[in-house]
Amino acid sequence: MASEASAELEAKLLKRRQKCEGAHAPSPPTKKGNRVWSDEMAKTVSQQRRARLTQGDSRLDIVPPSSASSSSSRPKASSSSRRPFFFAAGLVAALCLLGAVVCRQEEVDVNLPNESDFTTDVPEAVETEVKREDVAANDTAKTVEATATTKAEAQPPEMEPAEEEVPFDREHFSAMVKESAIQPHHSSVAADSRAPRDLTEEWQQFLSENPTIGQVYRLGRLTVTESSSRPVRVTVNITLTNLGSSTWPAHAAVQIAHGADLGMDTLPLGRVTSPGEHRKVTLHLKVPRQADAPSCIWALSLDGRVFGVLLLLELDWIESTSAGLLGQATDNLQSARAYVHEVRPQAHDQALLPDLSRVGDVTEEWSADLAPTSVTQAYRIGSIEVASVARGAVLDLVLALENIGQDEWPEGTELKLVSGHSFGFESWDLDTPVHAGSVVQVAMPLKIDHKDAMVEESVWALSLAGHSFGPLLVLELRYNPR
Predict the structure, then answer these.
(1) d(CA 174, CA 275)
(2) Those residues with Cβ within 8 angstroms of residue 160's Cβ, 6 or more apart along the chain or in another chain
(3) Pair (238, 349) in one structural domain
């Protein structure tokens, strides 16, 4: 076994040496049995063979004459005595081979990249390649998108069938007034209910020139007594009917068309009105006490185009022949005056919100109305915000009136409404005379309905034999739906 191992190692060493020395290196000794032949020995044997073949001797002498003569004089060495030598040589060769392999492995380890090289350089290269691929993909996508956009622009777009526009004529957009009511809130304004309402026949020439209008309607005729005081309130309630075949949108409106707007320039309907449906609108007007335009006209409008009906309000101003709001002054009660001593408003409905900060003396504010009279005081007895009233709401006002004059208030003296809505309290009579310096309490239960919530001011005053002598008691309502 040892000889086989040494022979195998020796063969490997020979192959490695041949690679290292090159192709022109002398051939190593060849092993044949237990002898090692040299080149000279092989040449000698070849010459002897040719000579013997020439002489007819076919025997082969593998030992040259010199070697044969010398070898015959000494004993032959046995093959067993040479085995330790060959074993040692093989072991040395194996160790040399092992050392060469170890050195080669160290060189390979030195040349190999370390772990940090794999974790830094390679991923960056891969990431760079990925980014390049993403940029290329984005450029390709943009190119495709630009090509598609160019093609889309080149092709004419498909036109959807447009909705047919409704003609703006009387067949599709028409209206008429079903009913109306006008209510002044001051004694200086009077409404003439006998004035004819429908004026369509009188306006035929105008209507022929404006085919989208089918009716002219007079809301009323107001007679206003001239005064230097502030404007008075007038409420106009109107019910309109859609007579056309088209629906009125919510932004259709009642809009001023001629004259002063009286504080009502535009009033949107706020709700869609279908054909045949009725729509109620309320105009809250402020009528000046000085002469102005003799008439005001509103009309239904849609997107700046007038249609349907014209709403006409006529006004007439006359000179004042009385003392104004309270009538003629009374000489015999000039010294009889009143003073509001206490006010206790009590609201029985959450929709009525009293504002006590606005309760108090407003004589300066009402000075224009007080100037031509003997009344020396105006007092705001309540300021109520009306949020929402679905039914009649009750408001109790308790007043304390003090006679600060020198004369008593005789029987027949009453607290009477002189302007605005009464809310169920027209007047209240004194049962007994009120002496100078005395105080009398007055309870005023008021019923406020939704339709009356728009009225802003109502005024009461003490009166005797049709002549008011004071003070003015003002109730203010502010409608603010939530």
Answers:
(1) 9
(2) none
(3) no
